[in-house]
Amino acid sequence: MVTIRLARHGSKKNPFYHITVAERSAGRDGRFVERLGFYNPVAKGQEEELRVNLERVQYWISVGAQPTDKVKRLVTRARKQAAGSAAAAA
């Protein structure tokens, strides 16, 4: 089974996560199929906190990939940001 999950990178007390598509049997930070974006929970100032390729997320969900609970919340937040920026541009 394929999952959409977070892979931790960064250093001690400075986490940085890649949103990845991986086989469930692969290790948390190990082999992955595709990288869909990132999440930086300690972003400060003008640093980008979240970037997600929503088209690819939708594709992977349509072919049966299961997102984790945290990824579901991040994708929801990314969709709200995308809708807000589209409304501001119009």
Could you please describe the fold and organization of this structure?
The chain has 90 residues and is an alpha+beta fold. Helices cover 33% and strands 34% of the residues. It has helices spanning 54-62, 69-89; strands at residues 2-11, 14-23, 34-39, 50-52, 66-67. The longest helix is centred in the C-terminal third of the chain and has 21 residues, at 69-89.
Short overview:
Helix content is 33%, strand content 34%.
What's the total number of strands? 5
Strand coverage percent: 25-35%
What string gives the helices and strands in order? EEEEHEH
How confident is the prediction overall: mean pLDDT? 91
Distance between the termini: 40 Å
Give the structural class: alpha+beta
**What count of helical segments does DSSP give?**
2
Uncertain segments of ≥5 residues (pLDDT<50)?
Answer: none
Coarse morphology: flat
What is the C-alpha radius of gyration, as a whole number of Å?
14 Å
Strands side by side in the biggest sheet: 4-3-2-1-5
